[in-house]
Amino acid sequence: PKVIKLSEYKKPDYLVETIDLVLHLDNTKTLVQSTMKIKRNTDEVTPLILNGEELVLKSIKLNNETYTDYVHSTENHSLTLNKVPAEFTLMIENEINPEANKTLDGLYKSGTIFCTQNEPEGFRRITFYVDRPDNMAKFTTKIVADKKLYPILLSNGNPIARGDLEGGKHFVTWEDPFKKPAYLYALVAGDLGVIKDTFKTKSGRNVALEIYCDKGNENKCHHAMESLKKSMKWDEDRFGLEYDLDIYMIVAVDAFNMGAMENKGLNIFNSAYVLADQKSATDTNFYGIESVIGHEYFHNWTGNRITCRDWFQLTLKEGLTVFRDQEFSADMNSRSVERIQSVMGLRAAQFAEDAGPTSHPIKPATYMEINNFYTATIYEKGAEVIRMIQTLLGVDGFRKGMDKYFELFDGQAVRTEDFIHAMSVANNNFDFTQFKNWYGQNGTPLLKATSKYDEAAKRFTLTLTQTLPANAPKDAKAYHMPVRVGLIDSTGKDIASKVLELKETTQDFVFENITSKPIASVNREFSAPVKLTTDLTFDEQLFLMAHDSDSFNRFEAAQVVSTKLILDLIEDAKAKRTFELNSKYVEAFGKILADNTIDEAFKALSMSIPGEGVLHQEQAEIAYPETEAVRTFVKKTLATAHQDTLVKLYKSIEQKEYKLDPKSMGQRDLKNKCLDLLSYVEGGKYNSLAFDHFKAATNMTDEIGALTTIVHANSVHKDEALKAFYDKWKHETLVMQKWLTVQASASDESTYDAILKLEKDAVYDRTIPNLVRALLGQFVATNKVQFNHPSGRGYKLIADRLLELDKLNPQVASRLASGFKDFKRTPKVLQDLMRPELERIIKTDGLSKNVYEIVSKILG
Ligand code: B3K
Ligand code: ZN
C-alpha cells in the first residue's frame, strides 16, 4: 500500500462550491444523483480526479451534456475527467448497495435504519467527490424513500421541503447553510422513536433538540438529552460559543465503528453512548454518555466551523475537543476524579501505544490508512498538549487564544500551526517555537526530579532533567513543558506552589526563604504528560499519599509506591522466591480505608492496584503469568489484612434512593471495590456477600459489579449468576455486551472454550462492532494471560477471527491486530508462537491496508 506524506500536501486542483444530492433509498440499489458546481483552484489546466469506492457509475453530464472523456478505475478508487472547463456544473448518477456494506463506512444499514459514517473517507462510498477536508461545499439533500418503512428522513441543516410521491414513497429536502467538508455529511432514514426538547441560546434563539432511537428505547434517551443541554450551556459559559442552527439532532444506532460522529446538526451515535437507564446502564456508562454527547457537541465549533486542512491535522480538532470534553466533565462532576481517570486512561492506552511499534507523534508525518490514526495519541495525548498550553497561558490567556482562533479561522480548514499562532498572538506573542516539538516527536518523555536543601541559606533547589525516550526520532529536541510544583512542610502544609517552565535538558529551580526541609510534590495535576521519577524515599511517598493538597499527586503517590513494590515482587516471582508485601504499605492502605475524611470516590480510586497493562510497560520482557500472580497476591494480602475494615466500609454505605450525582456514584464505586477486594480472601469466605449483592441489585452498576466479582473470583455461584443475568437481559444488546465482557476478561483457563461457545450464542453477531469488541477485543486487551497462553491458542484464535473480520470490516480487524503490539517484548517462546500467526496475516491475499499497516509495524 501507498504511504501518504504530509510533506507532499498540495491544495486541491478543483473545489466543489455546491452539491445537491438526491438519494432514492433502497436496500440493495440506492440511486444517488449528484449535481455539483465546481471551480478550478489552480492556474494549470489539469484533469479532474474524483474519489469513488464501490460505486456503480450510471451517467455523467457536464453542463447538461453527456460526458464521455473519462476513466473510471475501480482499482484506484477514482474517476478521472480528462478535460473540464474552469467552472462548470457536473451531474453524476451512481448506484450503491447499502445492505452489502459491512464496512460501516459510507451509507449502510444498521438493522432497519439507513445511516452514514463519512469521516474520514466514507463519502466516496456514496458518490464521486473531491473527498478531502479542505474542499468545503454547501450541501442540499433530497431523500426519497418508502413512507411506511422510513417515515423519518434526516440530513444536515434545516428541512426545507417535504411531500408524498407515488408508489407509497415520500421525500424530505434538507439544506445546510454552512459550508462543510464531505466527512461531516450525514443521512438517516428509518421508523424511529424520538424525544424532543428545546434549548434557548444566550442570544435568545430557540433550538429544537431531537434524539432518535429504535422505537421502545425513548425512555432511555433522557440522560443524553440532559447532557446535550448541559453541553450547550457550558460551551456558552466557558468559551462564549453558541449553537448556530435551529435544530440539533442525535440518532442512536447499534452498528457503529466508533463512539459517535459529529456530523453537522445530525450527530450519529453508537447506541452505547445514548441509551441509559438505572436498570441497564452503569455509572461509567452515564458518565461516558455525558462526555461523548459533550464531545460531539463541542466539535460544532472545534472541528466543524473550523476544520482540518488535511488528515495529518486530525489532533487539531480531536485533541482540542477531548480537552474541552474533559473540562466539561470536570465541571459537571468532580474535577479531581475526572483528572485521575483521564490520566489513568492515558497511561493505560496512550503510554503503551507510544512505547510500541505503532508509536507516532500527535501530528504524524505519514500514514497508509488514516483510519488507523484515530488513536489514543491523537486524541488523549493531543488533549494533554492542549492542556499544557492552557497551563502555560493560564485559563484566561487560553480563552483569549480560543477567541482569536475563531476570529481568524472561522469557516476555514486549517493546520495545528494556525491554532498555535492564534494562541500566541492573543498572548503577547508567547513563544511556542520549542513547544511545537510536542506535535512532531513521538514517545513519552522521562522527567527526573531531584532536590537539595541548604539549611543555612534556607534555600531549596529542585533539579528537573528531561530525557527523550529510546524510540524518539534521532534529531529529537528537548521539550518545553510546564511542571506544576508544590513544596510541603512537615505538617503537610503547602509552603510554595508554582508552575515551572522546563526548556533545557536540565534546569535548577531555586526556592528562597524555605525555613525547613520540604517535600516536593512534582508535576501536580499531571501538568506534563511524562514519566516522572523522583528521589523521594518510600516514607516521603507515603507522606505525600497522606498529605498532598493536590489530589492527583496524593493518588499518584499510592500508585508510585504500589508499582514499585509490585515490580519487585514480579522479580521475586520470576526467581521463584517467596513473596512478602511491605508492611508499611499494607498499613498505609488500611489508613486510607479507615479515614473518614476522604470522600468515597477518591477512596475508591485510591484502592486501584496498578493495571496489568501499566505494569507490562515497565518490563523489558513481559512476564505475563507472574504479573497476574503478583497482582492477585497483593490484593489477597490487602484484603486479608483489612477484611474487617472492608466489610465495615461496605456495610456503612447505604443508598436509600438511586441518584446520579458524583457522591452517589463514588459510593457505589467504593462499595463495589470493597466487594471485589474481599473476593480475594482465601476460601471464598465472601462469596455469598457478592452473590447477595448481585441478587439484591437495583441498578446495573451494582449488578454487573457483583457479577464481575463472582465470575473473576471463580465463585461457586458463577454459573448460576451468569445464567440468571442472561435470562434477565438477553433481549438487550447493550447489556449482553457487558455479559460477554465479564466472561472474556476472566483469566481462568476455561475462558478460551467459553469464547468459542459465546460466539455461537444468539446474542452474538460479528457484524456489530460493539459485540466483537465486547468479546474478542476484551480478550485481547484485558486477558493477557489467556491471550498469551503457552499453547499459542490465543494468538491463533485472534488471527483467525481477524482475517474473517477483515473481509467485512477492516477497521474492526485492524483494532484487533494492534492487540499483538507487545510482540517484541513477549518472551521468546511465545514470540515463536506469535510470529507465524502475524506472518500468516500479512501474507493473506486481499488483506486490507488497515491491517497491513499495523501488522507490518509490529513485525518491524
Ligand atoms: N470524529 C469521529 C471519529 C470518526 C472516526 C472514523 N474512523 C468521532 C469523534 O472523535 O468525535
Ligand atoms: Zn472527536
TrEMBL record:
SUPFAM superfamilies: Leukotriene A4 hydrolase N-terminal domain, Metalloproteases ('zincins'), catalytic domain
Lipid biosynthesis as UniProt keyword: no
GO biological process terms held by the UniProt record: proteolysis
Database matches in CDD domains: M1_APN
Pfam families reported in the protein's UniProt record: DUF3458, DUF3458_C, Peptidase_M1, Peptidase_M1_N
Catalytic activity, EC: 3.4.11.2
Catalytic activity: Release of an N-terminal amino acid, Xaa-|-Yaa- from a peptide, amide or arylamide. Xaa is preferably Ala, but may be most amino acids including Pro (slow action). When a terminal hydrophobic residue is followed by a prolyl residue, the two may be released as an intact Xaa-Pro dipeptide
GO molecular function, one term: zinc ion binding
Transmembrane segments: none
Keyword set, alphabetical order: Aminopeptidase, Hydrolase, Metal-binding, Metalloprotease, Protease, Zinc
Domain of life of the source: Bacteria
Cofactor: Zn(2+)
Role summary: Aminopeptidase N is involved in the degradation of intracellular peptides generated by protein breakdown during normal growth as well as in response to nutrient starvation.
Family the entry assigns: Belongs to the peptidase M1 family.
Protein name: Aminopeptidase N
Lineage of the organism: Bacteria, Pseudomonadati, Bdellovibrionota, Bacteriovoracia, Bacteriovoracales
